[in-house]
Amino acid sequence: MMRPGVLRAALLGLALAGVLAAQGCAGALAHRPTMTAQAEQAKFEQDRKAILAMAGDFDVTFDFRETVSLTPGYELKKPKVSGANEIVRVLEDRGDFIRLQQILVMKMGDDTIVTKHWRQDWQYEPASVLVFIGGNAWETRKVPASQRAGKWSQTVYQVEDSPRYGAVGAWTHSNGVSQWTPPAEMRPLPRRDMTTRKDYDAVLAVNRHTITPFGWVQEEENSKLVLRGDHHVLAREIGVNTYKRTSPLPRDGDDYWNATKAFWAQVRDDWSRLETSAPTFGLTIQGEPEPLYIPILTLADDVQAGKIATDAAVVEAENMIARFTTTNVGTLESRIAKARQQADAGSQTAAK
């Protein structure tokens, strides 16, 4: 979208709105003393092109490998490699704000399985960013003008639209390569470890996104943090999520989204109200929050199947969010202790 006043054609069938917002962005560029307005506008458009290039249909490979043990006696775990098919759709484009939704579309024999996956929101020169602070809690952190100039925040949300992590970084386009690299920020355990391990509590991650000739790649440099007692790094890990463009995937993913997007829009609004209600908020459950996201995903499935009306499903989802969230998060130590207790209880139950 060229700012101000020109709309690009629709991307993947979704209209790209935002002329007014785009006009508003122009003023944010005028104060730069180190770059002409024309050069800054060109850079802004390059950034937007890179973000929008992550939309499409993809074959995805997830490849995670522990590389360095940093705790006495710790032995590196075997690599975890898996694959999937995924569609990425542009839900919103206001010029300086772009929202992308990822949906898994998997062929299982004669059946196609659709699962809502993660969402990424991109904001140009954000006044604040939502960051993970450990123990299933998040904090809205102000971003000084000097630290946001020319940069974008990426905030990632989980399958039921609760937050996951956020960071602020600059897109660069040197030597023909577009990539976004923020400083290291903390994030929850990945699901591949959350459900199988209890020897660390969070990840300190550098999360680089690079646009490639075949699609895009998300590279992670992860330090696995132990936040109990004497905080330390258990091990380091390298992760490479590779998105290769493919021929159009089955329409099931788009059919799912078209049937449920009104439901998910209201769920997002409910989470947004919680985010703005207090500087910090969190979940009342620790570890993998299946009691929260499984019922909400099921409600979306029921909406698509016609088993429940959207308005009724929204009310149930709001009640579920209210039940499992709080703005009184307590201390990190108390949250981690609760997570350990729940993990230990789960291990004892599984052993019986």
How does this model look, in words?
By secondary structure, the protein is an alpha+beta fold. It has a domain at 19-248. Helices cover 32% and strands 37% of the residues. The chain is built from eight helices and 15 strands. The strands form two sheets. A ten-stranded antiparallel β-barrel has the order 1-2-3-4-7-8-9-11-12-13. Strands 5-6-14-15 form a four-stranded antiparallel β-sheet. Strand 8 (163-172) and strand 9 (179-181) form a beta hairpin. It is globular, with a radius of gyration of 21 Å. The N and C termini lie far apart (59 Å).
Question: What's the short version?
Answer:
By secondary structure, the protein is an alpha+beta fold. It has a domain of 230 residues. It is 32% helix and 37% strand.
Can you give keywords for this protein?
disordered N terminus, alpha+beta, 4-stranded antiparallel beta sheet, 37% strand, 352 residues, single chain
**Mean of the pLDDT scores?**
89
Share of residues in helices:
25-40%
Beta strand count = 15
Strand order of the largest sheet: 1-2-3-4-7-8-9-11-12-13
Q: Give the SSE string.
A: HHEEEEEEHEEEEHEEEHEHHEH
Number of helices: 8
**Span between N and C termini?**
59 Å
Backbone structural class = alpha+beta
Relative strand content = 35-45%
What's the Cα radius of gyration? 21 Å
What is the overall silhouette? Answer: globular
Described by strand count, sense and barrel closure, the largest sheet is: 10 strands, antiparallel, barrel
Low-pLDDT runs: 1-33
